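quick q for whoever's on today - can somebody do inverse folding on this one?? i tried earlier but teh output was garbage lol. C-alpha cells:
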C-alpha cells in the first residue's frame, strides 16, 4: 500500500490504499503517518476531480481523516473535515459512509458538551443503519446512544439503549461490545442504588472479559 502511494497512481487506487492502511495506523501508529497518508491520497483524488468520479471513496477517506483528528484531540479540524465529507457521502449514495460520518459528528459534539447538537446526528445515523439492516453497526450505535444518554443524565433511556445493544451484540457474538453494554448497565444500576442487580450485571460483564 505504501508503494502504491509513493508512485503516481489513479485517484481511486490512492484512496483505496489510504483507507486500507488506516486501521493499521489507528492501532499501531504513528499518528503523523496516518494523517500524511490520508492527506496524500485526498490531495491526489481532489486534484483528479474524484468528487465527480469517486465520491464514495473520497467520503470514506474524509471519514478516516476526521476520525484521526478526533481521536488525537483536534475536534475543530475533525469537524471541518466532516463538513466536507457528509454532503459528499450523501450525494455518492453510500449510506453507510454517511451514517459513519454522522455518528462521528455525534461523538465529537457530545465530547464537547454540545449535547443538543449531537443527538440528531446519532439518531440520523441509527435510522440509516436500521434501513440498511447492518446489525453489527446497529449494536455499536445503540451502545453509543446509551453512553450519550448516560452522560446526559437520562438514565432510564440509557439503560434501554444499553440493553438493546447488549442483546444485538450477544446475538452477533461480539463479546467486547456485549461486555461494554453490561458494564455500562451495571454502572447505571449502581448509580440508581440497585445494588443486587448491579452485582449480577457486572459479574456477567467480567465473565466476558
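ok took a stab at it. sequence:
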Amino acid at each position: 500500500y505504501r508503494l502504491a502511494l509513493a508512485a503516481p497512481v489513479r485517484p481511486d487506487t490512492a484512496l483505496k490504499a489510504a483507507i486500507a492502511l488506516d486501521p493499521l495506523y489507528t492501532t499501531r501508529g504513528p499518528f503523523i503517518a496516518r494523517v500524511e497518508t490520508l492527506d496524500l491520497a485526498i490531495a491526489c483524488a481532489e486534484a483528479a476531480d474524484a468528487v465527480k468520479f469517486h465520491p464514495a471513496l473520497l467520503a470514506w477517506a474524509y471519514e478516516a481523516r476526521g476520525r484521526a483528528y478526533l481521536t488525537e484531540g483536534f475536534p475543530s479540524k475533525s469537524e471541518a473535515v466532516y463538513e466536507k465529507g457528509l454532503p459528499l457521502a450523501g450525494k455518492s449514495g453510500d449510506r453507510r459512509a454517511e451514517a459513519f460520518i454522522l455518528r462521528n459528528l455525534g461523538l465529537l459534539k457530545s465530547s464537547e458538551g454540545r449535547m443538543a447538537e449531537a443527538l440528531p446526528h446519532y439518531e440520523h445515523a441509527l435510522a440509516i443503519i436500521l434501513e440498511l439492516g447492518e446489525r453489527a453497526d446497529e449494536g455499536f450505535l445503540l451502545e453509543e446512544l446509551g453512553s450519550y444518554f448516560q452522560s446526559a443524565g437520562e438514565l432510564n433511556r440509557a439503560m434501554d439503549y444499553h440493553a438493546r445493544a447488549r442483546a444485538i451484540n450477544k446475538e452477533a457474538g461480539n463479546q467486547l461490545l456485549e461486555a461494554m453494554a453490561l458494564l455500562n448497565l451495571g454502572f447505571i444500576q449502581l448509580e440508581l442504588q440497585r445494588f443486587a442487580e448491579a452485582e449480577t450485571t457486572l459479574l456477567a460483564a467480567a465473565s466476558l472479559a
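fwiw The chain has a mean pLDDT of 92. also The longest helix spans residues 11-28. so keep that in mind when u check it
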